[in-house]
Automatic annotation (TrEMBL):
GO terms of molecular function: oxidoreductase activity
SUPFAM superfamilies reported for this sequence: NAD(P)-binding Rossmann-fold domains
Keywords: Oxidoreductase
Lineage, opening ranks: Bacteria, Bacillati, Actinomycetota, Actinomycetes, Streptosporangiales
Protein name, per record: SDR family oxidoreductase
Highest taxon of the lineage: Bacteria
Length: 259
């Protein structure tokens, strides 16, 4: 006899940060894998455009405004997702932003704002969706973390602290959820070409890249594409029940060289 029921055929998924980058690519990948998807971000019109594209391709998608830094917004998003798609089986936490400043220069309110989005925002999703999953005895919650947790990068102190908190929270959830059928997982991308960092001025970008070289981070020039990270998220969510990809780190392959 199978130890676990297989995944249900219909697995509605919510993706935060779905207006851009990794979140948008993940919503697309999950829709292509057959999940009905709820897309959330502050730029709801961009989510709606992507949802319309998914629907035009034969998928099921729904968009709703979402600010993960606002508890009421998360509750409204969660309610709308369940009303439109049914009980949520998969949550992907990808919303985030990044301000490139040294910790000694960073205002504590700005530090707190980044923790609000990355860490408290992720926990708001847990509060909204995990109890239903535990009651149904199945579900996937995927946190998009960052390789900065393993190897911090300068000028990203609040981000490093927040993502370290996300990984600590996810590891603890893996213990607390053991035996419930609910899998909490981490996908930890390396450098990825997205909207992140695109709003920095040229001087800031130059300094960040100089320091990456100084600290040995810029080993080669290739970045991941958002679809690469989305493929990792889809693999985590697509694992058969009874097995759990607890942490997947994704790095860009280096350019091929002569041997
Ligand atoms: N790019 C990288 O190199 C890299 C590496 C490791 C990890 N990551 C992680 O990957 C995740 C996605 O980032 P990305 O690289 O894809 O960057 P991106 O293209 O800038 O996307 C960030 C997304 O987060 C959303 N967002 C920001 N603040 C939000 C809020 N308060 N409420 C709801 N949504 C919010 C943005 O949408 P709105 O502005 O419309 O709200 C956008 O959709 C982040 O968690 C990031 O830390 C990125």
């Amino acid at each position: 006899m199978a130890r676990f029921e297989p995944h249900p055929s219909r697995r509605p998924a919510v993706v935060t940060g779905a207006s851009s980058g990794i979140g948008a690519a993940t919503a697309t990948a999950l829709a292509m894998a057959g999940h009905p998807v709820a897309l959330g971000a502050r730029r709801a019109e961009r989510c709606e455009e992507l949802a319309a594209t998914i629907r035009a391709g034969g998928g099921e998608a729904f968009a709703h405004p979402l600010d993960v830094a606002d508890g009421d917004s998360v509750k409204a998003f969660a309610q709308a997702a369940a009303e439109n798609l049914g009980a949520v089986e998969v949550v992907v936490s990808s919303a985030g932003d990044l301000h490139a400043q040294r910790l000694d220069e960073l205002d504590s309110d700005d530090f707190a704002a980044q923790v609000q989005v990355h860490l408290v925002g992720a926990h708001r999703l847990v509060s909204a969706f995990a109890p239903g999953m535990v009651a149904r005895r199945r579900g996937d919650i995927v946190f998009v973390s960052s390789d900065v947790v393993r190897s911090p990068r300068t000028r990203m102190g609040a981000y490093v602290a927040a993502k370290s908190g996300v990984e600590g929270m996810a590891r603890q959830m893996q213990m607390e959820l053991e035996g419930t059928g609910v899998r909490a997982s981490l996908v930890r991308p390396g450098p990825t070409s997205t909207g992140m960092g695109m709003n920095w001025d040229a001087e800031t970008t130059g300094k960040v890249l100089e320091e990456w070289v100084k600290w040995g981070h810029a080993r080669h020039p290739y970045f991941l594409r958002p679809s690469d990270v989305a493929a990792a998220v889809a693999a985590v969510v697509g694992m058969p029940r009874g097995a759990h990809l607890t942490l997947v780190e994704v790095q860009p392959e280096a350019p091929l060289e002569e041997r």
